[in-house]
Amino acid sequence: MTTNLAIDDDLINEALTLGHFKTKEDTVVTALREFINHRKQAEVIDLFGKFDPDPDYDYKQGRHS
């Protein structure tokens, strides 16, 4: 899918340089993936402490599986 975007030239060029990307498309796609991953991680972090631990869970047994 082709999409035309007006992106600040300084911003895209800095991201392109910092990421060592060859194209602007690679830069934008990577930036979007990193943004999505960051948001998903934040959602998981928000769940910490909201669930009671399973008293029967044996974490040591999981190491040998």
Summarize the structure.
60% of the residues lie in helices and 0% in strands.
Pick out the low-confidence regions.
none
Mean pLDDT: 92
Helical content stands at: 55-70%
> What's the total helix number?
3
Question: N- to C-terminal separation?
Answer: 43 Å
InterPro entries: VapB_antitoxin (IPR019239)
Pfam families: VapB_antitoxin
Protein name: VapB protein of antitoxin of type II toxin-antitoxin system
Structure notes:
With 65 residues, the chain is mainly alpha-helical. Helices cover 60% and strands 0% of the residues. Helix 1 packs across helix 2 (24-47). The chain is built from three helices and no strands. The termini are far apart. The longest helix is centred in the middle third of the chain and has 24 residues, at 24-47. The chain has helices at residues 9-19, 24-47, 59-62. The model has no long low-confidence stretch (mean pLDDT 92). It has a domain at 20-48. The chain is elongated and about 55 Å long.
